UniProtKB/TrEMBL annotation:
Keywords (A to Z) from UniProt: Acyltransferase, Transferase
Species of origin: candidate division WOR-3 bacterium 4484_100
Record-level Gene Ontology MF annotations: acyltransferase activity; nucleotidyltransferase activity
Protein name per its UniProtKB record: Glucose-1-phosphate thymidylyltransferase
Signal peptide bounds: none
Length: 386
């Protein structure tokens, strides 16, 4: 059976889904699309996006399971043999369609879902806002890592606290002496070609993605996508991939997008002085998150200079270049060139050129399709401000 994960309310996940489809965001040790595919065995999965600047439209021609990008399955699910709506906690998150015509647009999907009477409950989570990723990341790490359940072939030169069966170090990974793996709260998974330098402590549950480098770090219950450069202190965070926080400083309970660079001593607050729940600005409205500990959300290709201080619950858009250190604003929209004294528009050509240089440093070339996406997104953001 074919599965189409369709983007739903992607703008509620600003700034995380600005430049990548929402189903490709990390939660636990996998992206949403990887997670859902593992629980829908024997299926092929595509993503449907309909944005003014970003279109992906797979064409369903066979029986298809339609699944909202806000849904995260947590248990194996075999599609039923009849057409029905899929529910999590009494809320519709998709449906199964066996007979043509098969919906091809979000409008058609919405209309079709409303015409189906039968319902079946599935086990999973529903994500509504960016902070839900932080809320659920620890439990999803435990779920994923327990299922992955690989065994380390050679014991690393490291201090192991807890049951070594909960540690996996890929054969191509490099672990230096004076490293500590604490497995008492959950497993740790070190993926291929990772380098962990001396004087690093990692506390599970934790996933370190392929090709990442960890130096002189203290890491607690976090997820790192591929090719990250990490140092200092990280607590309960998600790094989407290809991002740097290589020096001293603290980042806690935060989601960091792709191609982000956090300068030396960059530090965020993840707890208010009055110990009240953190409020976050999304779409011009402040939301009560219900969370006591919550840090920041940083969009792709943002660069923060040395000594930057990030307030609790901050939202920082894509392509922000903040310099000069000190406390930054709690909200900066996309394509901003800013310090404590002024905020200006980041010129598009300069932003693209910097992104091209940064990607080349990781051995990747910005292809015309990705450059075109950035240009379209910039124009779309400009149109919103007019």
């Amino acid at each position: 059976m074919k599965v189409i994960i369709y983007e739903e309310d992607w703008y509620n996940f600003y700034p995380l889904a600005n430049l990548i489809p929402q189903p490709h965001l990390y939660l636990g040790a996998k992206t949403i699309i990887e997670n859902n595919q593992q629980f829908l065995t024997g299926t092929t999965v595509d993503c449907l996006c309909e944005r003014d600047f970003f279109i992906q439209k797979p064409i369903p021609e066979t029986p298809t399971l339609y699944l909202s990008s806000k849904s995260v399955l947590t248990k194996e699910f075999k599609p039923p043999e009849n057409e029905c709506r899929l529910m999590i906690g009494g809320r519709a998150i998709g449906f199964v369609k066996y007979r043509p015509p098969f919906p091809e647009t979000l409008k058609q999907i919405s209309e079709e879902a409303g015409s189906i009477d039968d319902e079946i409950e599935v086990e999973g989570l529903i994500l509504e806002h960016p902070w839900d990723f932080i809320r659920h990341n620890g439990s999803m790490l435990l779920l994923h890592l327990q299922r992955m359940n690989k065994k380390t072939e050679t014991q690393p030169r490291a201090e192991i606290v807890g049951d070594i069966k909960d540690l996996y170090v890929a054969p191509s990974a490099e672990v230096h002496p004076f490293t500590t793996f604490d497995l008492t709260q959950g497993p740790i998974y070190i993926d291929e070609d990772v380098r962990i330098g001396p004087f690093t402590a990692i506390y599970g549950p934790c996933y370190i993605g392929k090709g990442s480098m960890i130096e002189r770090a203290r890491i607690v219950a976090s997820t790192f996508g591929p090719v990250c450069r990490i140092g200092g202190e990280i607590d309960s965070c998600i790094f989407q991939g290809f991002s740097n926080k290589y020096h001293q400083g603290f980042i806690g309970h935060s989601y960091i997008g792709q191609w982000v660079n956090l300068g030396a001593l960059t530090t965020n607050s993840d707890l208010k002085n009055n110990y009240r729940e953190v409020r976050v600005l999304v779409g011009g409205k402040k939301f009560n998150t219900g969370m006591l500990k919550l840090g920041c959300f940083i969009g792709d290709h943002t660069k923060l200079g040395i000594g930057t201080l990030i307030p609790t619950g901050a939202v920082i858009g894509s392509f922000v270049n903040y310099f000069g250190g000190g406390m930054m604003p709690g909200y900066l929209s996309c394509f901003k060139w800013a310090n404590q004294m002024q905020v200006e528009t980041y010129e598009l050509e300069k932003a693209i050129e910097t992104a091209r240089v940064v990607m080349a440093r990781r051995g990747l070339e910005m292809d015309p399709e990705y450059e075109g996406l950035i240009r379209k997104y910039f124009r779309w953001r400009v149109s919103l401000s007019q």
